[in-house]
Design goal:
- This protein is α/β, with parallel strands linked by helices.
- The chain has a domain at about 75-390: Metal-dependent hydrolases (TIM Barrel), CATH 3.20.20.
- The chain is built from 18 helices and 16 strands.
- The protein has helices at about 1-10, 85-90, 105-115, 145-155, 170-185, 200-205, 215-220, 225-230, 235-250, 250-265, 275-280, 285-290, 300-305, 315-340, 360-370, 375-380, 385-390, 435-445; strands at about 15-25, 30-40, 45-50, 60-65, 70, 75-80, 95-100, 120-130, 140, 165, 190, 210, 270, 405-410, 425-430, 430-435.
- Strands 1, 2, 3, 4, 5, 14, 15 and 16 form an eight-stranded mixed sheet that branches. Strands 6, 7, 8, 9, 10 and 11 form a six-stranded parallel sheet that branches. Strands 12-13 form a two-stranded parallel sheet.
- Helix 5 (about 170-185) links the parallel strand 10 and strand 11 (about 190).
- Helix 9 packs parallel to helix 14 (about 315-340) and helix 11 packs antiparallel against helix 14 (about 315-340).
- The longest helix has 23 residues, at about 315-340.
- The radius of gyration is 22 Å and the shape is globular.
- Mean pLDDT is about 95; it is low at about 455-460.
- Bound molecules: zinc ion.
- Zinc ion (ZN) binds near residues 349 and 460.
């Protein structure tokens, strides 16, 4: 990608001044008018009243008048299969991403992005998926018993991954051996709640994050024994009955107890409403008529056909109807979790059908607002909350002195309407300036290009 490297060369880090801008204070959920932000290399070095700003000579000035500055956004649940497509995150103001099915190439990309030899976000990289003996995705680490659970974690130590990713088919003894070993060796474990475990157990065991609300609605069901009985039939009809009953038997008292457990243990929830919605509405042509598919490799696009996806191809109209009801229940659950003080992270599961690298983080923010979060609270799930989750609030997540120079300049006020996060004028990433022209060049360069190698890694199962 010669052109992407030219864009990069034009964007070497330099001293920047975003002059007379409206700064969004994500912590307070407030706008601070007429501010100036100074950055030097990759840090914010001054923020304050525009009239009092002393802008050093040689600083590049960016006109902030009438515009709104927010911290760079994070997509906390992402999959990525080729390095150049990660420039789409930058082009969408997404300056950080948590990779949920890591492999050694992601570790190499992280280095390339950090050193500035390629365009892409800051990465937190998870291990390859750790699943049961018959894993859902090829490339997973398989665990069938306690011994293999211990070995899985020991084998990851020192490899460069930031956390171990646990998955749906882990047996109980394997899961608890992972828990014990991970704690002993100081490795966080994050991911799905396995089918053999209740979300409250995962929370008490110290799982850092729960993705896609896995098994949350099950535990909130007032008729769980019946749900289990239907599911154990292991037939399409039984599964459908189980799913429908999960929606119909939601018990607010059980839910309250579970959310209190999440809050007490600071178990981060990454609901990924984007992929939950896609998995419920893929049968609709109107939903699939999304112009952003032009940024998706044709090889992938073919796999996005619901009549070919192994998770979806056997679905009947009744299955799709229940999926839509389950999705609406997920919105309700997210709203209630937020009310209950459960910590939330914005994530998309991009890579899955109609979940787009970079673009879909903005969809997720909109869906979180639909679920009942204020625009400020939704913004926090992609800025301050990721910083809290990473234990890095003194260096990221807000626009204050000492934080990284990751800034997105918007044409409109996102606290008035969350859609404004899509009206991007400028992205500053690690102190590098990407103006609208540079962002458009990245988009043009990333549009439909052939993959040189078949995709590796995998997605999530729903
Ligand atoms: Zn995923």
């Amino acid at each position: 990608m010669v052109a992407l490297s030219l864009i990069l060369a034009a964007a070497a880090p330099r001293n920047l001044a975003i002059v007379d801008v409206n700064v969004i204070d994500v912590r307070a959920g407030a706008v601070r008018n007429h501010q100036t932000i100074l950055t030097s290399l990759d840090r914010i070095v001054w923020v304050g009243d525009a009239k009092k700003a002393r802008i050093p000579r040689g600083t590049t000035r960016i006109d902030g008048r009438g515009r709104y500055a927010i911290p760079g956004l994070w997509d906390m649940h992402a999959h990525a299969f080729d390095r150049d497509s990660m420039a789409l995150f930058t082009a969408n103001g997404v300056t950080g991403a948590r990779i949920m099915f890591g492999n050694p190439s992601h570790l190499a990309w992280r280095k390339a992005f950090d050193t500035g030899s390629a365009i892409g976000p800051r990465l937190r990289v998870g291990s390859p998926i750790i699943d049961g003996p018959q894993p859902i995705w090829p490339g997973s680490i398989t665990v069938g018993n306690a011994e293999q659970g211990r070995a899985a974690i020991e084998g990851l130590v020192g490899k460069g991954y930031d956390f171990a990713k646990v998955y749906s088919l882990l047996p109980r003894e394997g899961y608890f051996a992972i828990v014990e070993t991970a704690k002993k060796l100081g490795m966080p474990f994050e991911g799905h709640v396995p089918n053999s475990i209740d979300p409250s157990e995962a929370s008490e065991a110290g799982q850092r994050t729960i993705e896609h609300l896995t098994r949350v609605a099950w535990e909130c069901s007032g008729r769980e024994p019946e749900v289990r009985r239907f599911a154990a039939e292991n037939t399409p009809a039984g599964t459908l009955k189980a799913r429908a009953l999960v929606v119909d038997s939601y018990d607010p008292r059980r839910a309250e107890g579970l959310y209190a457990t999440f809050k007490k243990n600071e178990t981060w929830q990454c609901p990924t409403l984007t992929v939950l919605r896609a998995m419920a509405f893929l049968d609709q042509e109107a939903f699939r008529a999304d112009p952003r598919v032009k940024y998706v490799n044709p090889l992938f696009r073919a796999s996005w056909d619901p009549t070919k996806d192994f998770r979806l191809k056997a679905r009947t109209p009744e299955d799709w109807a229940v999926a839509k009801r389950a999705y609406r229940q997920s919105l309700r659950i997210v709203g209630e979790m937020h009310q209950a003080g459960v910590p939330l992270l914005a994530g998309t599961d991009c890579g899955n059908p109609f979940c787009f690298a970079g673009f879909s983080l903005h969809d997720e923010l909109g869906l979180l607002v639909q679920a009942g979060l204020s625009p400020a609270a939704a913004l926090r799930t992609a800025t301050l909350n990721p910083a809290q989750y990473l234990g890095q609030t003194s260096t990221m997540g807000t626009l204050e002195v000492g934080r990284v120079a990751d800034v997105v300049l918007l044409d409109r006020n996102p606290l008035a309407n969350i859609d404004a996060t899509q009206k991007i004028r400028v992205v500053v990433q690690r102190g590098r300036l990407f103006d609208r022209k540079a962002l458009d060049r990245i988009l043009a360069q990333t549009e439909v290009k052939p993959l040189t190698a078949p995709p590796s890694g995998g997605f999530c199962d729903h």
